[in-house]
Design a protein that fits this description.
heterodimer; A: alpha+beta; six-stranded mixed β-sheet; 40% helix; B: 462 residues; Cytochrome Bc1 Complex, Chain A, domain 1
């Protein structure tokens, strides 16, 4: 199982990844900029994501909406920002590849002359509404803010969410946007992948024609920061919810680092799906929770594992917490069963095969090539990525669970219904979130 | 390190956008069909891009077949399918799926119950056997039912906190009342509390039957093999489905403007629409084009107005929900509280405008048609996409050449067609607006819209 590709680097530093797949007459264009909310500073949060919005508002030679010509050519397109990177993609009919490259290169090379105060102010309003819709007006929607703030110190770039603080968004100035663009949005900090119905040589020539004329820009130095949790940080707040929800989070290894794959599998067997240990106890047998889930959230500089469970009516988060830590202690002492390891292996194989089904969009082959290239400088990593899961053993999983899912170093967050503070996990301090 | 220079000093001419070139013709997936002795249809599509097989089992009975007073029965039945079979417990069933690395899902809509499983090709036979245990031979044990019903009741409790879920439920009730489409598939607290495991067993026995079922297999598989395996796995499943919701009571007449109060909400969750048209309408293609221009894509009139011009929302969209019986036309958007009345006023103006006063321009029409047709091939890239496409044919009795005909039929739509179908199927005077939002903050503005005084809906009314 692999994604065949060729890689070229233009003189201006732009990485170009090409993958031929002639199954469907479409091409995925996928462009990553190695910038995310971790490149922001306290007081200036939300910037990378707000900027992503501005990239759809037109550039010097096409100073109108970005969507119109591409949708008119039959494309689907989108972009996203996370802590570590920003990506933009189009999936176009094969005959519209040149149009997509024209558009992407124009906003890489010539965005600022078209970036006005009016566009900026409109998209800031849109982002504030995105924040209201997806966080403020959503039950438990402020949980990510509280968790990240407790897991990472104030000046650590993972302390804040990608959507940013309201006050910071309101304070951003247009000249800061310009400076941000010049620093991060240039060929030397970008990687483009084309996957689909292309001829690799022709496609490379076309990329060079459109992107080759753009200056490379100053190299971006990697961000570095450390985080440690000294204790069990216990916090709670009230929200407009009917049922209390418990979140437990731990600091864990970074993406692709040793222990990352084990934690993926450990969180799965603990809390994902009806076969998981905690679903079985909390939801199926004891019926004190309505749902439970967990994940290892791997990021470039560090990871965090997160477990979430909602209490059934009449039950407290303290009851849930007790069962969660009994099961974690059992896993840390005894490790997984043979059957759990075998299921984990075949599920990994299937999941990786599912990832080969599509050339584009979030998580398609073009996006994966870019992820491996940007984070590891190695687009060929796909089979070795799968191998990380195939080599996990009972003992390695047990050791990693024991080491990282440590009850004495974690964040324990309770979100409880208004005026029902007694449902929170015991000894929790009031958290201030916005 | 210093900045790296451009590869070439010479700049290309950017005075105009490159016109899209030709794209090679794309053969649409051919569906091979046969029917088992029990009446179940077996459809397969040979698709060998990756060694996976996607199975989809459609039964043409859904929440619209819930008997009066039993809202939620079809959905609970769907939920009970994977709770064990024969001597296998619910957990053991999921362990068996996990040993295949299977991706399993059930889905319930008004018109259909769907169970799907996607696996590595080498597990196709075992996956099909499990799927038949799930759909044809579920255990339906009393203790599992008690747990599943309790989880659904908890879920209902949680949905009360979610503005979008509250809006969806309340809006369906306003539009449809006691009609089979008037309730969410999940049902309500009263109907679920009164439900018994025997109700589920009875529903399964009378509705989830092979006469209404189609098995769709897409992947690295052969029709004869799948048909043989299906006969082995599903052969002893028999019976004819009844309970098809073919006739419907008359619709209520809702107030023009309705509010579910959500004090201090930073946004208002809006639904605007009315009951419109069914999937079998001859105006289908013209309506798809019209909706794309009005609110079906990023560059639609309504999204450009509310988001890109006024910044009131993260996004707005409209949909004709085509179903077997007339489904709703719905505009959905979440807007900042201070912009609620403006958003309603602008939205209704856009709907009224496209019916005639502001007909679609030639550019808008060309863009809408191009957006729907030029990228059509991309809907057939993965096995699951092909399954979903085939499922539409099976659910709505569409002809075999539906995919081939889609592009030419969309291309034939004219701006007169758009005006005509919008005038026929949308009526601004009948539009009902529902708001989940901060009534204290917006009440006065709403009264000023000219739709009469807002009707406040208590949570127990839907």
């Amino acid at each position: 199982m692999r994604i065949p590709f060729t890689k070229h680097t233009l003189a201006n530093g732009l990485d170009v990844l090409l993958h031929e797949d002639h199954g469907c007459p479409i091409v995925a264009v996928n462009l990553w900029y190695h910038v995310g909310s971790k490149n922001e500073r306290p007081g200036k949060t939300g910037f990378a994501h707000l900027f992503e919005h501005l990239m759809f508002e037109g550039s010097q030679h096409h100073d109108r909406g970005y969507f119109q010509p591409l949708q008119g050519a039959g494309a689907t397109l989108n972009g996203s920002t996370n802590a570590d990177r920003t990506n933009y993609w189009e999936v176009v009919p094969a005959g519209a590849l040149e149009l997509a490259l024209w558009m992407e290169s124009d906003r890489m090379g010539y965005l600022l002359p078209a970036l006005t105060e009016a566009k900026f102010s409109n998209q800031r309003d849109v982002v504030l509404n995105e924040r209201r819709q997806n966080y403020e007006n959503r039950p438990y929607g402020l949980a990510p803010m509280a968790l990240l703030a407790a897991l990472f110190p104030d000046d650590h770039p993972y302390h804040w969410t990608t959507i940013g603080e309201i006050a910071d968004l309101q304070a951003v100035q247009l000249d800061e946007v310009h400076a941000f663009f010049r620093r991060y949005y240039h060929p030397g900090n970008a990687s483009i992948a084309l996957a689909g119905d292309i001829d690799a040589d022709d496609a490379l020539a076309m990329v060079d024609r459109y992107f080759g004329e753009i200056d490379g820009g100053d190299p971006v130095e990697p961000v570095r920061a450390d985080a440690t949790l000294p204790r069990d940080v216990r916090i709670q707040f009230e929200d407009r919810v009917e049922l209390p929800r418990l979140y437990v989070a731990w600091l864990t290894p970074a993406m692709f680092a040793e222990g990352d794959a084990e934690l993926d599998l450990a969180t799965d067997l603990l809390a994902n799906g009806k076969t998981s240990r905690l679903y079985r106890r909390l939801v199926f047998e004891e019926r004190i929770a309505t749902d439970v889930s967990a994940s290892q959230n791997s990021r470039e500089m560090a990871g965090y594992a997160q477990l979430t469970a909602t209490a059934a009516p009449g039950h407290t988060l303290g009851e849930i917490e007790r069962v969660v830590f009994e099961e974690i202690a059992r896993l840390a002492a005894e490790g997984p069963t043979d059957d759990e390891i075998e299921r984990g292996r075949v599920q990994a194989e299937a999941q990786f095969m599912f990832r080969l089904q599509t050339v584009g969009g979030f998580g398609g082959k073009s996006d994966q090539l870019n992820a491996y290239n940007v984070f590891l400088d190695d687009p060929s990593y796909f089979p070795r990525d799968l191998a990380r899961y195939q080599v996990v053993s009972k003992s390695s999983l047990r050791e990693v669970a024991a080491r990282y899912l440590d009850p004495s170093r974690r964040v324990t967050l309770s979100i409880v219904p208004n005026d029902r503070g007694a449902l929170a996990a015991p000894d929790s301090e009031l958290a201030v979130v916005s | 390190m210093s900045p790296r220079p451009a590869t070439r000093a010479a700049k290309i001419d950017r005075s105009q956008l490159p016109a899209p070139g030709p794209t090679r013709p794309f053969p649409f997936p051919a569906i091979e069909k046969s029917t088992l002795a029990n009446g179940m249809r077996v459809w397969t599509v040979h698709h060998t891009q990756v060694p996976l097989v996607a199975f989809t089992l459609l039964v043409r009975r859904g929440a619209a077949s819930d008997a009066p007073g039993q809202d939620g029965l079809a959905a609970v039945t769907a939920d009970m399918l994977d709770e064990g079979s024969g001597s296998r417990s619910a957990i053991e069933m999921h362990e068996a799926l996990a040993r295949l690395g299977a991706q399993f899902d059930t889905d319930i809509g008004s018109d259909a119950t769907v169970a799907s499983v996607t696996v590595l090709s080498r597990f196709a036979q075992r996956a099909l056997a499990l799927l038949s245990d799930i759909v044809a031979r579920p255990a339906m044990r009393e203790d599992d039912f008690a747990r599943v019903r309790q989880l659904r009741l908890h879920r209902l409790t949680q949905l009360r906190d979610m503005p979008s879920a509250v809006a969806d439920r309340a809006f369906l009730k306003l539009l449809y009342g006691a009609h089979p489409y008037g309730h969410s598939p999940i049902g309500n607290e009263t109907s679920l509390a009164a439900m018994h495991v025997d109700d589920v067993r009875t529903f399964h026995a009378r509705a989830i039957r092979p006469s209404a079922a189609t098995l769709i297999a897409v992947g690295d598989c052969d029709h004869a093999d799948i048909a043989r395996l299906a006969a082995e796995s599903f052969g002893d499943w028999t019976g004819t489905s009844d309970g098809d919701a073919i006739s419907a009571p008359s619709l209520p007449r809702a107030a023009r403007i309705n509010v579910v109060p959500r004090p201090r909400a930073p946004q208002s969750e809006l639904r605007i629409g009315h009951v419109a048209v069914g999937r079998d309408t001859p105006d289908y293609h013209a309506l798809v084009v019209a909706n794309t221009i009005l609110g079906g894509q990023f560059v639609s009139r309504i999204n450009l107005n509310l988001r890109e011009d006024k910044g009131l929302t993260y996004g707005a969209r409209t949909t004709f929900e085509f179903r077997r019986l007339p489904g709703p036309f719905v505009l959905q958007v979440s807007v900042q509280t201070s912009g609620t009345a403006t958003a309603i006023d602008e939205s209704i103006s856009e709907i009224a405008g496209i019916r005639g006063p502001r007909p679609v321009t030639a550019d808008e029409l060309a863009l809408g048609i191009a957006a729907l047709t030029r990228g059509y091939a991309r809907s057939f890239e993965t096995g699951e996409q092909i399954s979903r496409a085939a499922l539409q044919l099976a659910l709505y009795d569409l002809p075999d050449d539906y995919f081939e005909q889609f592009v030419p039929r969309i291309e034939r739509v004219t701006s007169d067609d758009v005006s005509r179908v919008m005038e026929t199927h949308l009526d601004p005077a009948r539009l009902t607006t529902l708001i989940v939002g901060d009534f204290d903050a917006i009440g006065r503005d709403l009264s000023g819209l000219g739709f009469g005084e807002p009707v406040v809906l208590p949570p127990e009314s839907f």
